[in-house]
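Q: Hi! Curious about what diguanylate cyclase looks like structurally. Here's the sequence.
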Amino acid sequence: MTGRILVVDGTATHRIILRVKLGSAFYDVAQAASGTAALEEALRTRPDLVLAANRLEDMTGAELCRRLRPLSPSRDLPVILIQSSDDPAGRLEALRAGAEDTLARPLDEVLLFARLRSLLRAREAERELRLRDDTGRALGLAEDASAFVPRARVALVEAPGADRGAIATGLRDLANADLASCTRKDVLQGRAAATDLFVLVEGPGGAALDLLSEVRSRPDTRRAAILYIAAEGQRREAATALDLGADDLVIGAALPEELTLRTEKLMQRKRVTDRLRASMQEGLRAALTDPMTGLYNRRYALPHLERIDAAAQRSGKPYGVLMLDIDRFKTINDGYGHAVGDLVLTDIARRLQHNLRAADLLARHGGEEFLVILPDTDADQTLNIANRLCARVREVPVKIGAGLPPLPVTISAGATVGPAASGLETGALIAAADHALYAAKEAGRDRAVGTRVMPHLSPKRAISASSRSA
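A: Let's find out. The predicted structure is below.
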């Protein structure tokens, strides 16, 4: 099924007709004859959308909207109310009560199904974002939303020949938003890239539909909210607009208050989805980076090494792998405390990062050990880079606090080059670099040692290698 819809209507004929139409489109349909029965059915079946008559025997459609909202876990259950005739004042009342839209009898089947698809698609997308946000919070990777609400940027784009009517008046009263009129050319040339909400007013030739497709396909505008406004005779264009990605629409005459209400609801919804998306991205970033140094961690570095190796296998160009370790780090921790140890780690990480190229990857491999991946780098260059990093750390002692002398710190480095030989995994490269690092330690520390990949060094040892305390 494509979704569960609860049909609420006191007239049995209306319920049967809707059930047949929705069932033919493979929707799962539940029915109720009154508002009270609808509330019970909503608790029992957990519908994805409610399609209800605006007048029921025991309550109005607006009251049903208000009473349905607390029953949805995320308070986002979409409701469409069906009016006996098109009534702008009744539509405004329904929107204020929380309905997504109203439709007038006789129902336009094409517009009805376009509206259902649009609402269910938007609800599923937001539900997925909320699920990921909840997962991030459970893992401690998400932050609470900021109380600060930035001003929204609203662009009014009118197609040639469009009738403004009450549009400008309704948009003029928007709270916490800046309204600007712009042309199709402005949008196509990127001058509306920072827009939060586009209000596209259709003209006689369907130009706004073409622009809607452009807005949805361009990276700098595809996440903007879109309100599509059509004339009474443009219902097919309105249905197409929903399928092309319009978030809401107005057909025919509308009170200025309705336009204000719809646009403010769209801006609020966009703020929520922007926050959820940012939270998800921050959670992904947190999962792949070391919180102390800000460097990537092994979870990111090892798949990155696989990608670099695959590219090198195709191109035939070598790349370097370094394993770096802070010398006598356990002595620093034991003698000065973990706070100083953390300070040394972050300082060394910063120096290493500043002395690598933008294409190079520096990751904290664990403890006081770092992994460096150097694309398009041969054996001599790799060893030279390793020696340079050792020198940069050696040259300047680490400042560890007022009243204490700077602390001399050195690192040791093991170097090797890829791509991995036939039959070997990239873990063998890490094992070889780790073996060279051990040789550098044995030779007196504060130096770099290079090696070739040795088949007897298994990937398992490389992946499980722990930080050294020497």
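A: A fun detail: The chain has three domains: 1-107, 141-287, 298-464.
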